[in-house]
């Protein structure tokens, strides 16, 4: 427990490695300040709702096409306006407002079934409703005026974002795709360092540090590009950005395959000279090319195309010299030739990306072919289908929605009875802090409470020094810009300036310059209620969730290998679209399992199973996928009858073993013993008619790679077995062995 508290304390103070969103902050400040100034000058009713409408609507704008942004901002504005009207009408009647809060907040929290954008809209609609309940109007007319004021503030924010200060529609997509090439460059540089004889566990560290991060970067770019292209007629830049995204994905897969082949080489193959020196140079040049692609993708104007000079030729020349001296075995030569092939293919993909990036700012080229794979928005077939799928207590979304609804309702009742002064600060804290999982809720509660205390102290100091409304308005503009600008860096820092902003706004509106302590106390109460609701209402430990996530990742590994084996048995190369989909599904499933494991570590736990087997399962799930990626890079496999027979036997046994392993992890049982893969592949077999011998004689490189795949499976099987045998362990073990 002490270790977890220390980790949370570090996380509270941790800054993300990004720049502040200065433009977004200034625009959000204008969205608040201008309606407030106009409302105060003209003495318009609903001044608070003008500011809230401008701020919330500006906050929703995440970039993308004008159509998608207008739809998101407009939908949020309408939902918030409805919340204001309904909340203002029922706020005077506790017997009605309390049960309606339960229904309203639960329903809007359930909007997360439709994705992240809907979740943001639902959060704003729920928050606006509890504010309106705490600040009820005097009748229907005033409720309608409040709703109209919010819509007016929202309309100003939309005009500001879409007309007066528009962000270039493709700028977010450009930055997201450029981030993919930046991640590829980092991976190539790290691979060049590890290839120069680093420690044995460096290969495993490379996988753990890079693979998940790059896959997440690719998925963010995919989502951003989908949102950007939605509703747009112009296709030139969008299609070229899609080509760049798919090429970055292909380069990542090429580097994964290259890393697996390089690791299998072991120590230097020759005392005279190590041909991997040429590989190291090529990888560094590849990283430089990827950095060029970052620059070309981000910039708006045309640029001269770089001319990289690297591929697999230098390695082939080194091999020719070593081969002439008789210093290479047949298998070593085959592996190094495969490395040269992978480098050449990597260069070909980089050339495609460079050509596309240099044409990115210009108009579409006549006759240019569209990309093979289109980005399709992951839309649901109907509005009712996701609702039906999640109307069960087994759904995390449903459990979270009920938890938030009940806790917020309790907060409304407690605050209305015991804390009438700005009681909505309690409920806003509850809605902001509560997350679907215990660990993130605990972290956000710490950030919210500590940030509020610091911001409240600053507000007390400011209120004691300045009470001139004009100076206060200028200060509010600055603090509003700061709070939005700092969201990407650290949520706690955002909370400091958000507290300062809204305390000063409340003091300006009421003339009461002593509201900072009220904000602190109400936030503390809201934080306690949020934690209580998270711990005691329909909580499901991550120890219950992790096995299903891990089983999904193992089954995704199985499906990836299944795409390969089915194509081999037909004597064909695996289809690219099937491989791409299988790789993506595997990457996302593994990220989900790793995220679940991190939540497991962050949960306050009084008992726990041994963690080393779980870490090994995660590590070798990625190792298994990396070997499959190497196998997928083969353009063909030997297709003699004996080789196909050996591959069919091996694939059938591997499929059954992986399915049994996933089922064992899911249901908490020991996996069955592995089949005799050595007999299937011909390991240590001397009988001339043994079926596996054909693979070793006719395809030594393929047999070596399949042996490597089997070692990853053995490590997974051992971890699943140890999971059922090992006693509980309170802390993570050291990194798993990397002898795969």
From TrEMBL:
Where the record annotates domain Integral membrane bound transporter, the positions are 411-532
Sequence similarity:
Belongs to the YccS/YhfK family.
The alphabetical list of record keywords is: Cell membrane, Membrane, Transmembrane, Transmembrane helix
Q: What is this protein called?
A: FUSC family protein
Q: How does it sit in the membrane?
A: Multi-pass membrane protein
Annotated segments matching region Disordered: 718-740
Transmembrane region positions? Answer: 28-52, 72-93, 105-135, 141-165, 404-425, 445-466, 473-506, 518-538
Q: What is its main location?
A: membrane
- The chain positions of domain Integral membrane protein YccS N-terminal read 84-234
List the subcellular locations: Cell membrane
